[in-house]
Structure formats: structure tokens, C-alpha cells
Fold:
Amino acid sequence: MRFKAFSLWLALALVFCLVGVAFTPIPALAAENIDLNPTRGDVDDDIDVDGSDFDADDEIDIYFAEAYGENLADLDDDDENYEKVDSVTVRSTGRFDASFDVPSRLNDGDSPSHTVRSGRYYVLAVDTSDEILVHASFRVEDGDGEGEIELDPTRGYVGERVKVEADDFEEDETFYLYFTDSYLEEGDDWDIDDIAHCEYLGKENTDVDEDDFTSRFNVPDETTDGDDDPEDVTAGRYYVVVVDSKSTGDVLAVDMFDVILPDITLIPTHGEVGGEVRVSGIDFIPRTTVTIDYDGEFQGIETTDSNGGFTFNLTIPPSPAGPHVVEARDKSNEAKATFEVEAHLDVEPTQVNVGTKVKVTGSGFSHSQTLTIKYGETTVVSGVTTKSDGSFIQSFTAPARKHGGVTIAASDASGITAQTIITMESTPPSAPTPTLPLDGSRIGFVGKVSPTFEWETVTTDPSGISHYVLEVASNETFATDCILFPFPQNLTEDDLTIDPETNTVSYTLPEDNALPQGTYYWHVMAVDRADNESDPSLAFSFKSGLLPLWLFIVIVALIAVLIGFLVYFFAMRKKALYY
Structure:
């Protein structure tokens, strides 16, 4: 029994031991690693390499290369160059120390020797089977064979001649020059398909035992190479770059060039023919003559100051509506700006009477287009055509219209319009002078009366009299509720009798409007063709009829009765005497 218990405990202990072994962590194999100090520098700088986690006692070669891969054969296949710079043996701790000077050339590999230039390179740790175990990147800041370039001048105009002085380049080599707006640094990769806009300037060669060259180019007016469509060269910062290949390669040298483009501004940028425009120019050739043109026509000259600036006052010449080109040019450069001509009207006179002859002068309309002119809502000119320069001169007689502002609008068939406002006179006519019925007179004897009203003609109004307003009232205040209706309130020539010999106007009240017996008051106003109304004339009063009709009838009846009675009386008396 004890033996069985002991066996059981022994079996359990064995199981726990096996489980413990199974779950005991096993140290992971660390990947190889190299650290560089420093990680960037120049050719010939001393670089320390600290390796760790390598297999003890392994032989490791250190390479300085253009690229990295799984093994050196990969670099050979890609025509990448490399250079063996050190060999070390890994210590028992898995670490090693190496050092090397950044080489000026990479001579190993299947491709031709490579000059180390500015840019990114790689330090490789390679075993004896040429397997690349690990790599670290290194930035070369000042490589060999790159050289420097200096431009003279460093700023200028399109077309200007620029000199390129190049020095410290690789001997007996060919170099290519480009003009671009892309920012590049020495050592950057050059791939013309990655450059949006550039212009090929040409190639230069260094001679054997010579590391310098001189080149010249004219600042291009557009960049036609590169990945994007051609683009005009504008004012701003550009770069002249020297590369070792027209397609792909390295940027060996860069210098900046600022393109100066003359520019002009107009104040204002739109307006009417005959208006003044200030033309301001900058960045022209200093102290030289600048010619100003408008649509290619000479307008004047101006002299630039020491900074290449000028100011010129331009009077816009006759020209149709739309954009027009203002150009300023010196002996080498030109600049353009656009001025927008707008339609405009001049009207003479601006204060008019009805019947005044109005002259309308237009400019800035479309050329050779049918024209319409309106006076308010009334068309006064139609069927005429503008001139080739968009101008016209037309006249019309001002028609009758209410006093005050009147819009004169002109429009051509293309939709160009302009308008202005003139003023119709607002001076009221003189008040008429009443003549008949006389003040305080009596008209008629019995019943209703249709009087004739007469007054002197108003002849002095500049717009002419349109009509008269006659008011007859039962009260001298001429209150609205006292004015008698109905009869024409606006009496025109068709309603009136005009006597040119006596210079009077008369109006007879229609029978339907005859006035019953009573006292009445009347006055008259003159209204001219500009709708200006005079003050009322003097108010005259008159009496209509002596007796009302009913009283007259009663009186007649009484008289008839009286006569009848007298006849009867005398007849009876005579008869009595006879008998």
C-alpha cells in the first residue's frame, strides 16, 4: 500500500517536471544590427561601425554601397556599385567594431567605377557567402566630382544671357545643364520624368586633367521638357542644375536664378473712352525708354527710373466695348495688361424743355451694331448703326413728359447698354388771366345758364401749354366738395375755342351742365407739356339768372290773372255804362 502511494506521488512529480520544462521560455535569436557613428558626413570622413547580435567568430566584410539587397549578386544584377571598406571577426559576445573612411569612388561590382557624390548610401555587413546580413543608411553631404556652379548674373529677364562658371567636377566627363522651377539639392536623384517643368540648356565636358568648364545660356521663355505640358517662364525663383545624365542620374550642382519679368498695373482697370488710366511699370531696364501702346497703337513714351519703374497717364482712345491690350516695352522686354472698355453716354443739354433738341454721344458700344435709344419708355431713335470704334452721335426732340429726371438709355444689338439721366424742366407756367364772366357779373335771367368762360392764352411757357384746368365752385374756397361736376377738368385744344386775334381761350359750359340760379366762383390753371401746373388765376364770381324758374312761372301766372281780371273789369264796366 505504501509502495503504491509512493509510486503515485513519484508519477505526479515527474509530470509536473515535464510540464515545467515544456513551458520554460527559450531565448529568441536576436537579429544582426549595425550602428553608424556618424550617420552623415563627407567623403574621407571617418565612420565607426558598431555590430551586435552576430554569430561568434564569423568573418564579416563591411561594404559601402549605392544600394542593398539580399546578397552582393543582387547589386551586380542592378548595376549598383559598392566598395569593400573593412573586414572584422565577430567576438564571442556577438559584437564587433569596424571603421572606415568614406570612399571617393566605388570600384567593386560589375558596373563601371562610381564617383561618390552627395546623397544616400548604405553600409552593408556581408558574410563569407556574400549574403547581406544587415544594412544601415548613410548620407553623404559633400561628395566628390560634384563641384560648384556660379551664375552671372543671378537674376535677369527672359532672353538674357547668363554665364555658368563650373569648378571641382570630375575630369574628362560629360555634364548636362537644365533650367527648372523644381527645388533640388546636390545629391538628389535626377529623373526627368519626375520633374514637372524644365528646359534642357545643353551639355558640357571637362577635359582630361581639368575639373572646370564654362557654359552660357539664354533664359528660356518656356519650359518644354519635363513630365507636364510646356509652361511659360514667369517671374520668380528658378534653378540651374548640373546632372550626370539627361534621363536619370544624380544632381551634381545647383544654383538659383531669379527671373525678372517686367509688369504693369492699370488704375483703374475698366472705364469709358476718354478716361484717364495710370499705367505703372516695374522691373524694366533702368533708365531707359519705354513705349506705351494701346491695341498696338502708339500712345506715348516714358523713361524708367534707377529701379526700372515708371508711371504713365494714358487717355483711353475711341474703342469698342470689351478688353483691350495695354503694352509697355523697352528694348528687350515687354509687359501687357488688359483694360475693359465700358459703354458711356454724354447728353447735351442735361436740362431740357419739351421740344428741346437733345444730342446723344455714345462710346464703348459694340462696333457696327444696330442701336436703339429710349427716352424713358419711349423709343426716340432706332435703326441706326454704331461706328467701327463703337461710337455714335444721334439727336432727337424731347417729347412731352412729366417734369423731373428722365432716363436716356442706349442699347445695341449685342446687348451692350448705357444710360444717363437728364432733367425735364419743372418751372410752372404763369397763371392765366380771366376775362369772362366778369367778376361780380350776372348771367341770364330765368332758369339754368350755360356760361362761356374766357381767359387770356398763356404763351410764355418753354414747354408749351398742354391743357387748362377750369374749376367752378359754389364756394370761394374751392373746397373739393364745393367744386361742381361733371365737366371736363383737363381742357385741351379740342375742348376750347381759341381766338388768336384777341389771344384768348374760351369754353362754354354744355347744356347738360347748365348752372341753376345762384352765385358761383371760377378760376383756371394752365398745365404745360412737362406736367407743370400754374397757380390758379384770380377767382371771379358771377350770378346765374335773376329768378328761379318756378318764381318766374308764378309771376307770369299772376300777371296773367291780373291781366284777365283787368280785362274782365273794364269789359263789365263798359257794359254797365251802355245800359
Notes: The chain has a mean pLDDT of 88. The first strand starts at residue 33 and ends at 37.
